[in-house]
Amino acid sequence: MNASGKLAWIKAVHTVIWAVLSAVIFFLLYAVITDRLDHWFWWGLGLVGIEVLTLLVFGMSCPLTVLARRLSSSQRANFDIFLPEWLARYNKAICSVILLVVLAGMAWRLLK
Asked: Which of 28, 73, 85, 94 has the fewest Cβ atoms within 10 Å of its own Cβ atom?
């Protein structure tokens, strides 16, 4: 498989992982809003925690971005994922704000 084919696979896998983790983050927000801190909430929080640790280990980059960087010299924010460029550029900031709301809501729910 050539470099463009490998990059397409990386983009597809990266997009699927992004979609799953985004769904989990929005589920966490829903769970906090509706006061449903059940086992699914904790599993979701653990999954997001693994993602955060992975990003920290890889210098705030997804490991798939590191792989894709070897196949492309593009400087576009969405070179490694099938997302609009604006969303790829601000994805970490958007998710971070939502996660801060989730964590604050979780603390409030647990302490009330």
From this structure: 73
